[in-house]
Structures are given as C-alpha cells and as structure tokens.
Amino acid sequence: MAMTIVYEVGDKLYVNLTNKCPCSCTFCIRHNGDGAYGSDSLWLDREPEPDEVIEAFEKADYKKYSEVVFCGYGEPTERLEVLRAAAKYIKNNSSVPTRLNTNGLSDLIHGRDTAKELEGLLDTVSISLNAGTVDEYLKVTRPKFGEEAYTAMQRFASQCKEYVPNVVFTVVDVIGDEEIKAAQEVADKAGVKLRVRKYESGDNEK
Ligand code: SF4
Q: Which of 38, 64, 168, 176 lies 20 to 30 Å from 111, alpha-carbon distance?
C-alpha cells in the first residue's frame, strides 16, 4: 500500500495524517475510489509519525507552496498532537500559511475543548458546516455522535475565533438556495464567515 503523507493540489501542499473520521459524509471521496488529485492512494497502511510528516514536508520542498493544508482522507484532528507538531514545524521554519480543513468535531473526538490547542499554529480553520439545519446536517454527514455534533461543531468554530486569525464555515453550492440561506444564518450567529464553494466530484475539501 502507498503512504501518501503529502500531495500537491494546485500551488498548495495537502497533508494526509489519518484515515479516521467520526463522520460518513455522503459525498466523501473515501466512498468513491482510492485516489484523489492524481496522488497514489490516500489510504494509509499506518498513520505517519511526526518525524515522517516533517520528512515528507522537506522532501516536497514545502516552502515553495502558497499554503500547507491539513486535510487528507480522514479528519486531521483525530491526530491532534501530530497535527500540532507538524504545524509548529511549518511555523518555526517558514512563513508558509497553514490551514486546517476539518469537520469541527475535535472537541467530541477528544472529550475536551481543543480550539486553544491550535493557537499560534494555524492561519485558517475551515470547518464543514455542510448544512443550515440539524436534520440536513445529520443526513449529509452521518456523524457517529448524532445530533450533538451539529452544536459542538458550531461551538468549536466560535472558540477557534479566539485562537486562529481566519475561521470559515463552508458549504457546497449544490445544497440549494434555502439551505445556503439557513447556513448563512448559522454562520452569522457564530460570527464566522461562510464560504459557498463549488462542488467538484472527487475533491476532499470537506
Ligand atoms: S468528507 Fe471529511 S468529514 Fe466527511 S466523512 Fe469524509 S473525511 Fe470525514
């Protein structure tokens, strides 16, 4: 099996730390084949250690990229400590901006508030809101935590604002105008920007 720890998407370097995720999104590329963005497989036969991630950064010449994005074929906060170590390495050694693409469920995964642990390590946290109502959210993301996930994700977003300069909610444009309007209201309530992104089959922005 391949061990794709980092992969290129345009002028950005994406990081694949884990295949674990508490969700089972209907659109997730994990359900749709085993490759993305022309990389080999993003299925990991084992999860990389921090020194392996750093080695992969160096090998990829990470400083030439416009952004390093923690995303991959799973939920990066499942490996919060490795994520922190890897982001810290980037911050200590370069001025390359860092971003986390997340389902926002880190607090439920770890059973504690985790936003503070991202302080000084990330420039952007992009959280998949996915829907403007809890019912639709559950239908689309199918989190193992059930209904609690929707409020926990919003709370995580609000708390991230204290520790990360740029916090964004995302939805895809295919959810329809009504749902986008409802999502905007949720984002406004949390004081977080909403990005409506174009859905592209095969992407894994979350
Ligand atoms: S899209 Fe992201 S949050 Fe959803 S199941 Fe896939 S890895 Fe998990």
A: 168
Q: In whole angstroms, what is the distance from residue 38 CA to residue 20 CA?
A: 21
pTM greater than 0.90 (yes/no): yes
Tell me, what DSSP letter sits at residue 48?
Answer: P
- Ligand 1 pocket test, pick from 103, 142, 200 with the greatest ligand atom count within 8 Å of Cβ, gives 103
Give residue 31's region: left, alpha or beta (phi > 0; psi -120 to 50).
Answer: alpha
Cα separation, 173 vs 70, whole angstroms: 22
Over residues 142-172, the pLDDT tens digits come to: 999 999 999 999 999 999 999 999 999 999 9
Tell me the C-alpha distance between 177 and 129, whole Å: 15
Pairing of strands 166-172, 193-197: parallel
Tokens of 33: 């084949």
- Give residue 145 CA to ligand 1 midpoint distance, Å: 14
CATH code for residues 6-197:
3.20.20.70
